[in-house]
Amino acid sequence: VLISKALTFTSGRKIEAANLLGIGRNTIARKISELGLSFDKK
User: Fold this and answer.
1) Which residues are CB-contacts of 23 (< 8 A; sequence separation ≥ 6)?
2) Whether the Cβ atoms of residue 11 and residue 41 lie closer than 8 Å to each other
3) Which of 18, 23, 41, 42 could form a disulfide with 27 if both were Cys (CB 3.0 to 4.6 A apart)?
4) What is the pTM of this model?
């Protein structure tokens, strides 16, 4: 849920979302894949 909200808040920018959550860009990419999340940039 937090990753999804962070992606929405940052308009899908993974690096910004990772910084917001205090995790690395590779970690957020892995978590998105593990959780099966998809986010379309708008």
Assistant:
1) 31
2) yes
3) 23
4) 0.82
Query: In this prediction, what percent of the chain has a pLDDT beyond 70?
Result: 93
Going 9 to 15 to 19 to 23, the CA torsion angle's sign is positive
| Side-chain-facing half-sphere of 32: CA atoms under 13 Å | 21
Q: Specify the DSSP class assigned to residue 22.
A: T
Residue with tokens 């920018």: 13
Q: Which two tokens stand for residue 21?
A: 């959550």
Q: Which stretches within the chain are classed as H helix? A: 2-9, 14-21, 25-35
